[in-house]
Design a protein that fits this description.
Strand content: 15-25%
CATH topology of the largest domain: TIM Barrel
CATH architecture of the largest domain: Alpha-Beta Barrel
Number of domains: 2
Bound molecules: pyridoxal-5'-phosphate
Largest sheet: 9 strands, mixed
Helix content: 25-40%
Structural class: alpha/beta
Length: about 450
């Protein structure tokens, strides 16, 4: 028989709050599997740490979002936001579900092309498009969403020299009641800049105005803000029709829907407070349907949802490296998952679950990553049971941004696996090795040891 783990006795103050049927205690549940597979077996196979993506969850969430919109509006098109997670396997899942690609750089544009996405199903956003990028997008018939006047003028130049027309939209920023306002991207609605850009496009012979775009922010907890934004874009569409007798083909509402993660400092868990896809769909489609756009000319509704589609489908599995007491007696746990891999721990209070049942005794603790940096904190405060060196845990809801914003800092990026719909496991990104970085570095000869 295995010796029981020693747990140091401690006296803790009872927290005020609403007791559940077990009293005042925080019970930490364990999470032993993902999509029916034992996490312990995955650790044995892939080491620690590693990311897991669930195709089943991706499908479920996508279908939920698609239905919310398509039950309320006749023409709906999703475009996968590459920067939210651009692992090729992930992009291919969204493309196979019917999503176009939404990209914000030449690098992402080429990723979409090499994933086999037809140029005419790529939306090119962002403030940084080189003339070469623009030329390629024009040749491929992609949708170019113009961000600023300098881009507008260079695009006119590019189309003239190619003797081709470009399909364009403008990104519009506006006051939706969300502050701080994201006014650094696109053309402002209230001060007339957006209308000015539209007039210039309409007068240009080589630009075909096909749409209107906005992306009001990210993790937007107010569905209502989207109603305001959609109404303002619809007003621009109506103005275009009045002045130019021109109908746009689509209104693109961008991304920004909140995922179920809990923001730091939030009073209630995100899963209880974030609006549902139905909530967002209701306000957006209300604004479009109730606008003055004529029923025969209703534009396609494009959504570039990133975070809310993938966050729930991602997990990171890790291992406890050490338990230690801080100078003031506070418990701390050092784990092998740092902020270099889990960038979102700067914003979220991520949930952490042991993969095996542990004791019901919990203690307030701080969870540190493995980096030799003071900023490397995964959770500042969590009621957590005793876990020992070598024990494994899993952090759910990490699918958005972590696998694109991760840093190669102090440690290398780990394996990423995909559990497909048939519960087969695929290694979709190999853990990096030192050799990967040797290939891009160059030490001048005189510094080399002879
Ligand atoms: C980042 C981004 C998105 C996706 O945003 P989420 O908050 O992840 O939904 C969509 N459109 C544009 C233009 C973006 O920059």
């Amino acid at each position: 028989m295995e010796k029981l783990k020693y747990e140091r006795p401690l006296i803790t103050k009872i927290n005020a709050g609403v007791p559940d049927k077990f009293g005042m205690k925080t019970r930490v549940k364990s999470m032993s599997g993902i999509d029916g597979l034992e996490i312990q077996d995955l650790v044995t196979k892939f080491g620690s740490p590693f990311f897991v993506l669930s195709e089943k969850k991706i499908n479920q969430t996508y279908n939920e979002a698609y239905q919310a919109f398509s039950n309320r509006y006749p023409k709906v098109q999703f475009a996968w936001s590459y920067k939210t997670n651009y692992l090729n396997a992930v992009c291919q899942i969204y493309h196979s579900l019917g999503s176009w690609a939404e990209v914000v750089s030449g690098f992402e544009y080429h990723k979409a092309i090499s994933n086999g996405v037809p140029g005419s199903m790529i939306i090119f956003n962002g403030p940084d498009k080189s003339e070469e990028d623009l030329a390629e997008a024009v040749k491929n018939d992609s949708f170019i969403h113009i961000d600023h006047f300098d881009e507008l003028y260079s695009l006119i130049q590019v189309t003239k020299s190619l003797k081709k027309t470009a399909k364009v939209a403008i990104r519009v920023n506006m006051d939706t009641g969300i502050y701080p306002q994201w006014d650094r991207f696109g053309f402002n609605y209230e001060n007339g800049e957006a209308w000015n850009a539209l007039n210039r496009i309409m007068l240009s012979e080589s630009l075909e105005l096909v749409g209107l775009h906005t992306h009001i922010g990210t993790y937007i907890m107010s569905a209502n803000a989207y109603g305001v934004a959609a109404a303002k874009l619809a007003a621009l569409a109506v103005q275009l029709h009045r002045k130019f007798n021109h109908h746009i083909k689509y209104i693109d509402m961008g991304g920004g829907f909140a995922s179920k993660n809990t923001l730091k400092g939030a009073y209630l868990p995100g899963k209880d407070t974030c609006p549902s896809f139905n909530d967002y769909a209701e306000t957006i489609t209300n604004a479009l349907i109730n606008s003055e756009i004529s029923p025969e000319q209703m534009p396609t509704l494009i959504l570039e949802t990133g975070r809310a589609l993938i966050d729930d489908a991602g997990y990171i599995v890790g291992t406890v490296l050490a338990n230690k007491r801080l100078a003031n007696g506070r418990r701390s746990i050092v784990v092998d998952v740092g902020v270099n891999l889990l960038f979102t721990s700067f914003w979220y209070d991520h949930e952490i679950y042991p993969i095996k049942e542990t004791s019901q005794q919990t203690e307030d603790a701080t969870v540190y990553g493995p980096l030799c940096m003071n900023i490397d904190v995964i959770r500042e405060a969590i009621q957590f049971p005793l876990m020992q060196k070598g024990d494994h845990f899993v952090i759910p809801r990490v699918g958005a941004y972590n696998m694109s914003q991760w840093l190669q800092f102090i440690t290398l990026r780990p394996n990423v696996i995909l559990i497909d719909n048939q519960q087969n496991v695929h290694l979709i990104r190999k853990k990096e090795t030192n050799e990967v970085f040797q290939t891009v570095e160059n030490t001048p000869d005189y510094l080399l040891k002879k």
